[in-house]
Amino acid sequence: MSFITSSESGPIxxxxxxxxxxxxxLCRVVFGKKYVEESNGGKSRFDEILKDTQAFLGGFMLVxxxxxxxxxxxxxxxxxxxxxxxxxxxxxxxxxxKEHVKKELKPEHEDFVDVLLRVRCDxxxxxxxxxxxxxxxxxxxxxxxxxxxxxxxxxxxxxxxKNPTEMDKAQxxxxxxxxxxxxxxxEDLSQLSYLKLVIKESMRLHPPVPLLVPRETIENCTFLGYxxxxxxxxxxxxTAISGDPKFWKNPEEFKPERFLDNPIDFxxxxxxxxxxxxxxxGCPGITFAMPLVELVLANLxxxxx
Length: 305
Fold this sequence. Notes:
Helix content: 40-55%
Mean pLDDT: 87
Radius of gyration: 22 Å
Cofactor: heme
Strand content: 5-15%
CATH architecture of the largest domain: Orthogonal Bundle
Number of strands: 8
Distance between the termini: 19 Å
CATH class of the largest domain: Mainly Alpha
Keywords: Heme, Iron, Metal-binding, Monooxygenase, Oxidoreductase
Shape: globular
């Protein structure tokens, strides 16, 4: 958890605000609007459902490790809570999809739901989408795009606070280049070269998904002398890889300059640094996540001490 301080209101929970921000931005992109409740501190209607869903997906469930003990969750209340959360999410999606279907005129700016519904109804497309598949894609968008983006900003701010020299460099760059602007916009980001180094180094130390998304072997195989049967779940430890002293000098130190004139990037082509995964199963949200993270950090550094 990360905090900033205000002289007027005291400590502000930056972690909570950034998660809410990421969620609201994604709501605008996916649904075309924010589902905000002013009485709930500006949080989206979707916030609580999403928070519960992320807790289930990232939390400990005995059945994940011992499938034959799944019956226990019928008695400890976990299965009932799980069903309730996903029923609420399903009902929310139904409401959103109905709103989009009822639109009489084609919207000037399509949101993500508009695009999915258009693809579903287009007979010329080779892709066939069911409503359940659309709901699954929407869930992937929120699970993958909210907590990861906000956590990256929080970890980066944490590292900058711990390393005041690097903080000064990043802040000086933002304020020198964009000193006449009240708010930094996406078109300004290309000028902030040191900030990009800071974010790269932060994601090296703190990958958004430390174990990446689990994979499963589809057939028996032998790897480095180990026989791995089909249906084996495989975890890739991105944190261990990006902290391996074979590839990184002083890997525990926060040194953004290590990426200066360094061809290693996070796009999945350099296997010693894979915060977004690699190959055809790498995260498709890089081009959405990076401008979001850069914009938030640039404005925090520009507007606050």
